[in-house]
Amino acid sequence: MALHTTLPIYRAAEDLLAVVTDVVANTQRDFKRLIGERIITCCVDIIDCVYLANVAQDKTPHLVKMIARLNTINSLIRHGMNTRKIHGKAYGRVVELTTSIGKQANGWKKSAGNRPLHGGQGFHG
């Protein structure tokens, strides 16, 4: 098991948090408080999910939660873009990072689904 802070998905999640924090800091107060805080909370949840999935025997629940948080972020960021609270360049970077994290999470989920929960080699049935 790799240290969770060295995983590419963790680094992408940290980048996402940094980008989102900058985006939210540069928005109007009402957006920042109502929607921005929710976006940042979802980013922190994603980082937590990376750690939890890395140490858990059954990774699937943590990866499913991570994917749900990514969907929430995408929806809220899209709302910010549509209401012109967020600039297109920032929106594009957030979508790029959420797509990367989503692909990695789905790959990890698929990989974890093919492994026995209790490790080891041989038949576990």
From TrEMBL:
Gene3D superfamilies linked: 23S rRNA-intervening sequence
InterPro entries, alphabetized: 23S_rRNA_IVS_sf, bAvd
Lineage: superkingdom: Bacteria
Name assigned to this protein: bAvd-like domain-containing protein
Region annotated Disordered, chain positions: 106-125
Listed Pfam families: bAvd
Organism annotation: Paraburkholderia eburnea
Residues in bAvd-like domain copies: 13-111
